[in-house]
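Lab manual, section 2.4: Encoding a predicted structure.

Procedure: take the sequence of the chain (353 residues), apply the prediction step described in section 2.3, and record the output as structure tokens. A sample record is shown.
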Amino acid sequence: MKILIDICHPAHVHFFHWISEILTRKGHEVLVTSRDKEVTLRLLDEHGWAHRPLSNASTSGSLGLLRELVTRNFALSKVVREFRPDVMTAIGGIFVAQVGFLFRIPSVVFYDTENAKLQNLLTYPFASLVAVPNCYESWLPKAHIKYQGYHELAYLHPTWFTPCHETAVKNGLAPGGDTFVLRVVSWNANHDVGETGWSLDLLREVAEYLGAKGKVIISSESDLPKDLQHLSYAGNPSQLHHVLAFSNLFVGESATMASECVVLGVPAIYAAHTGRGYCNEQEHRYGMLKNVTNLTFESIRPAIDDQLALTAAERKARWTRLLEDTVEVADYAASLIEKTGMGVSATELKASI
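Recorded output:
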């Protein structure tokens, strides 16, 4: 079977890493198309994946995203005519869904972001199958399936990832004492249109508060001001998960990175105006995450204190329960892709998996 995987974001590289490996081991031919956004191409190269870049991520608002949609769909169509895949897959999936619909090639779209309303409207009706976590809180097309898990388990489940303390220290973890990771984003993704995030004053306040307790590392999509540059993450982007796994707390406006910490057993605070179903579940079901929507230090500080008050035993017990409750996402996702490529319908998949 020929399978096309469309990679549009650094996190998608991680998600599809083991899924692609599983499919390749089964004898399927996998082709990867890519998008130049942040460190996506670097991560693909470090993984040793041959890939075809089709577009650069737009940074010019809605008009730029629309322009990229047209140009990337055109480029993907050329690849499809040449490769003739049996099935296509992606996270978000707007390109594979639309091009797949045009060429009558089944598409499997994985997603977990409810507030990407425009993207979902332009994707879901065209996808052969939309796969989301059980905790997903927004509308879905008829052709969908839900599973108990999170995207981040596809690459950070203990089956696939073993944290290395030495690697973490080489990439910035404090060799002794506590380490805290902060994350700020650029707010130019398609699901971020109209959104705003942390102010520099808030970032300084949180960094100062945690800096009195240990080492602070800031992961930022944009350049930091001079007074914060010494805190900027300077390690290898592909090794950041080792740092996260041994950190004491994550605080930031990236839902993905917050969830990565949770599935690694590290308490997290997701501080942003818009929420996620998986973040809500990780707070209410497992107590490993705090959601803060009021972006002030006065709102974030109590959440920090609560999360730091968790004992090691409490953290381990909650993390263990999470792993016991969830499926092995990489195997599950590979099976969905494979069966969809074989012509199994969404209705049949719900009954068989």
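Check your result against the sample. The chain has two domains: 2-149+328-352, 165-325.
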